[in-house]
Amino acid sequence: MPSGPISFSSRPTSIGRARLGTLGTPHGAIDTPQFMPVGTQASVKSVTPADLHLIGAQIILGNTYHLSLRPGAERIARLGGLHRFMAWDGPILTDSGGFQVFSLAHLREVDDEGVTFASHIDGSRHRLTPESAVAAQEQLGSDIAMAFDELVDPSRDSAAVAGAMERTHRWAERSLAAHSLPDQALFGIIQGGIDPELRTRSVAAISGLPFDGLAIGGLSVGETKAEMEGTLRVVAEALGDDARPRYLMGVGSPLDFFVAVEQGIDLFDCVLPTRVARTGQLWTSEGRLNIRNSRFQDDPGQVDPECRCETCKTFSRAYLAHLFRAEELLAYHLATVHNLTYTLDLMRGIRAALADGSFASLRNTVQARYGNAESRTKRPVTDQ
């Protein structure tokens, strides 16, 4: 394992390849497995850093593409870096922008050197390369930066998927060569779609480079759950006993956590908990609840009696139903606080279950609550 700006220690459990660990960063330690709320534009929508600390967030994610366009990585650097800019004193991981390149297919052109794209904001032309993506992340000053990669739809023909994977490998080497910030870790990204042979080749290429951690990209972008599970097993088998932290990008639904943790995943991020919160979809110990449903207008009960969050301790289902129907901004804050609390508490419960041997029981309980309703949601381009 490379020595550098982060430390990672883990111990195996009795559940598959699942492990319990501690990831040390310049801005604090992280218990793993762990979920990272997404703050794409230096803000986790509708909540403050104080809220994030209160609900138990240990690390959050920012996005290089969005922050480079607005307000600009150089401006953030002049203002003291991303931590100071957004008043978050905990660890931050920044995505290099590879997913946005994938999502902006109608606005970009990819070549071996990088990507030329039109801004989704005003149509202005920009260029993103492995070197500029790394430079921007160094200006932002995140604790963990990501190598620049090319993500393609896994349903495309094998030649296209293989070509993007090989380009990702070349860009990984260039990202490493460009990276110079001593107190910032750099993770490489494994690609290859859902093809077992390509994934195995990508594991060999990326794990063979001196990255501080390894990420699995190209999943939760339209493939079936069975395809995602199979791909995770292939990657886990190929990684073997590699001791570096493993990050599954863009996956964050309750049942997916269990599948991925069993295959040794340590870190997750996803917009799903905050995004569905703003539509009135609340995750609870009893399953998914649509607070916009008329039956909640006269319900004086808590959203989730088992939840510790401000929303559940203070307000009724009837009140939240009213806020959403009236389109009051407070609705989005209260729902987001709840869904993030549920997600982070579920991850805490998973860690406890791995430690005491009750993982299968917890998984079965969550399966019973979410198994019939849960569906894969693609990561949106500009939303979170």
Tell me the distance between the termini.
33 Å
CATH superfamily of the largest domain: Queuine tRNA-ribosyltransferase-like
- Taking all Cα atoms into account, the compactness measure Rg is 20 Å
Query: How many β-strand runs?
Result: 16
**How would you sum up the global shape?**
globular
Strand content: 15-25%
Largest sheet entry: 8 strands, parallel
Q: What is the averaged pLDDT score?
A: 94
Question: What do you see in this structure?
Answer:
With 384 residues, this protein is of the alpha/beta class. The chain has two domains: 7-271, TIM Barrel (Alpha-Beta Barrel); 276-370, no CATH class. It has 15 helices and 16 strands. It has helices spanning 49-55, 64-69, 73-78, 82-86, 98-103, 130-140, 158-178, 196-207, 225-239, 254-262, 272-277, 310-314, 317-326, 329-356, 359-370, and strands spanning 7-12, 19-25, 28-32, 34-36, 60-63, 92-95, 108-110, 115-118, 125-128, 144-146, 185-190, 213-216, 246-248, 267-269, 281-284, 287-290. The strands form four sheets. An eight-stranded parallel beta sheet has the order 4-14-13-12-11-10-6-5. Strands 1-2-3 form a three-stranded antiparallel beta sheet. Helix 6 (130-140) crosses helix 7, helix 8 (196-207) packs across helix 9 (225-239) and helix 14 (329-356) packs antiparallel against helix 15. The longest helix has 28 residues, at 329-356. It is globular and about 60 Å long. The chain starts with 6 loop residues before the first strand and ends in a 14-residue tail after the last helix.
